[in-house]
Amino acid sequence: MGRYVLRRAGVSALMLVGVSVLVFVVLRLLPGDPTVTKVGAAQGIDPAALRQLRTELGLEDPLPVQYWHWITGLLRGDLGRSYFSQFDVGVLVGQRLGPTLELSLAGVTLAVVLALVLSVLPTILGGRWLGRLVGGYTTLGMAAPPFVFGIVLIALFVVRLGVLRDESYVAPSADFGGNLRALLLPAVTLGICLSAPLIRYLRAGLSEVEDSRHVRTAVGKGIPRRSVVLRHVLPNALLPALTSLGVTVGQVLSGAVVVEFVFRWPGLGSLVVDSVYKRDYAVIQSTVLLLAAVFVLVNLLVDVLYGVLDPRLRVGEAVP
Amino acid sequence: MSTLELSEMDSVDAVGRGVLRRFLARPPAVVALAVLGVFVLLAVIQPFALASPTRIDTRHKFGAPGLAHPFGTDELGRDLLSRVAQAGQASLGFAAGATAIAMVLGVAWGLLAAARPGWLDEVLMRVAEAALAIPTLLFALVFVAAFGSGILAMTIVAGLLMAPLTARITRSAVLAELKSEYVRGLTAVGASRSRILFAEVLPNALPALLAQASLNVATSLMLEATLSFVGLGIQPPDASWGTLLKAGYDRLYESVWYPVAPALLIIAAIAALNTVGDQVQRVLRGTAWSGR
Hints:
heterodimer, A: mainly alpha, MetI-like fold, 2 domains, about 0% strand, disordered C terminus, B: mainly alpha, disordered N terminus, ABC transporter permease (chain B), membrane (chain B)
């Protein structure tokens, strides 16, 4: 087990190194540099001043040196400095981390609850139409880009019915109630799109376990259907669904980018989009690497957890 | 030997036709194909058959759906049906181009990995896994920051982004075929490795690859809509489903109907493409079962 974890962690670390090189190289593939964009508006800028600026930002160094500075800085906890606002990227990320975490947690919680209810209910109640309805919900959920639900919710509840107001983010420390009111629609939006793939995995797992022998035995013993599903089927179906959690985190990250944009939520997603607008490479590279690290780490944890829960995977080497 | 080749070719053809027949026997698959057909048709006939997407009619701004304008009108009174149909040319064209790039790259990548087990396979698949380690959208944003959001650059980027997954699917489909009885037979009668790969294995793996192609088109449509919606994709005045959706979202208070048309088309197209991919995979799994 220890070797399995070590090997898996090593692969993850290598992956992150690969990602960092890739992000760094891609951002510098094309000639042209952000300082020119920055002072672009000012005509007839002194070339010496430009060079000074580039030296200050470390852009005059050779690429491997720049990469080395970036990576060693990251390992010390220094994410670099924005080319434009002169803020430390760490400060910018720190400001945005809270709102993103809040939104993601609320969204994931909602998605898990939705997924459990919507996948278990048709199994308990039987009945074909309920299953079809849930099937339709997942098809829709997988096909709609996350922000579409946001637009629909705004159009319905804010514009048409007027029961909710279009609120912008307030810090929970300033106005807790206001914060929750602002959180409602974005969290529901994220929850709906995250629940669709979860339901698919869960239902596939449920129907597979339902056919197994121990379930047939339980049914044969005359145990009521509800307890059969909740005590014998569901626990066994949860394990395969766990792998989809890793995928879900990837969707949280992508979903957060657009959901934050729709609801003007000041999180990491909107920070990335803003920096792409401005070509602020210092912010983009560190933030994207950070998000990729979260993604890789969660997938590592899921794999290890899976290994703990399912001994078959522990034997020998990683499954190809 | 020639008789054996003939019978092998027959069975290959039979498998291909069997998949198509079983695919078309499934109602969801037929509905999905019909939906896609309508969208493509809409984009193609738009210049000839529909109202001009640029004709301004300021007396009928933000019109609700009706007989004259099935999807309503926009902020300048332009017909939204023709605008959506015209935008489909950009969105579908982009998706087709990106998918073509992804398929060519991914199939070559996966085929090479499957054909050369050992260190080359290992390296190729590790690279694919590392590329899959970042969520597609984040990767796309990095590329847009570097290359800008011209439609050509975006098509190439989307194609590159989808290649690793396509490579992985190709590799596993080809490996599954390579294990089968008929490949051993062909090897025994002395058929060359490249002939086995290109003339026998690849045609048999085709349904699985087409399923992946369908999913790739869906992914590119989703990517285009998302990037355009946050303003980093196709740039106005060029219109795509994503840019129209953004325009409609900005005018939500003037007309809740504005974003409906692009949203519906995006959702329906992606759902149909997912269904096609899904149904092909189900048919293939079914074939495997009956073969057992």
